[in-house]
Design goal:
Blueprint lengths: L3 E6 L3 H11 L5 E7 L2 H11 L3 E5 L7 H11 L4 E6 L4 H9 L4 E4 L4 H12 L4 E2 L20 H11 L4 H8 L3 H15 L4 H10 L5
Helix pairs in contact: 2-3, 3-4, 6-8, 6-9, 7-8
Length: 207
């Protein structure tokens, strides 16, 4: 079985070593790199092509949220899981808007961390405890305004698939998928992938 490739980003060497030990305790995960600041994280994500970037929010040079935004733009296949000591819903919302797929507190137990990494790799989302409510969005539109095909496309987009991957999976042309995506955005009045993900989570369309 192919291992989940993880890049660890934290400015404390001892913390990085501890995270590596936890993650590599399962044969399903391989840590492919460690870096200590946000700028290095952006470069390492591009160079190492990790499946998951496990990243602290508070980082020197470039903070974790801005680093997540850049990684999401430049290396979109890398799924980002934020790790923080701050139980602040504002940080959670900012992280989601930057493209993160999960937000764990540093007091999470070892198994929760491992399961979160594996879940994010599968295209799911993971949030610590009550922080899950911070992913809710303001849009009150019912999913019923979307056609069955549009709901299917939305779910696949939220799982992290590209338009081309969605097209191949559904047997459609890329142009058709792009048209569906435009209709979804117009109907829901949501204008970023992060907003679409939060909407889909709120309405139980994805895990």
């Amino acid at each position: 079985m192919e291992k989940v490739r993880v890049l660890i980003v934290d400015d404390h060497t001892v913390v990085r070593r501890g995270l590596r030990k936890i993650l590599e305790s399962t044969p399903e995960i391989e840590v492919v790199g460690e870096v200590g600041d946000g700028s290095q994280a952006v470069a390492a994500a591009d160079q190492l092509s990790p499946d998951v970037v496990l990243m602290d929010v508070s980082l020197p040079v470039l903070n974790g949220i801005e680093a997540a935004r850049r990684i999401n733009a430049e290396t979109p296949r890398a799924r980002i899981l934020m790790l923080s000591m701050h139980a602040d819903e504002q940080y959670v919302r900012q992280s989601i808007n930057a493209g993160a797929r999960g937000y764990l507190l540093k007091d999470a137990d070892d198994q929760d961390l491992v399961e979160a990494v594996l879940a994010v790799r599968r295209g799911e989302t993971r949030y610590s405890g009550t922080l899950a409510r911070a992913v809710s969005v303001e849009c009150g539109c019912s999913p019923e305004i979307l056609s069955p095909r549009e709901r299917e496309v939305l779910a696949m987009i939220c799982s992290g698939r590209t338009n081309r991957e969605v097209a191949e999976h559904l047997g459609l042309s890329v142009n058709t998928v792009e048209t569906h995506r435009k209709h979804i955005i117009d109907k829901l009045d949501l204008h970023s992938t992060a907003e679409l993900v939060r909407y889909a989570i709120r309405h139980g369309m994805v895990s």
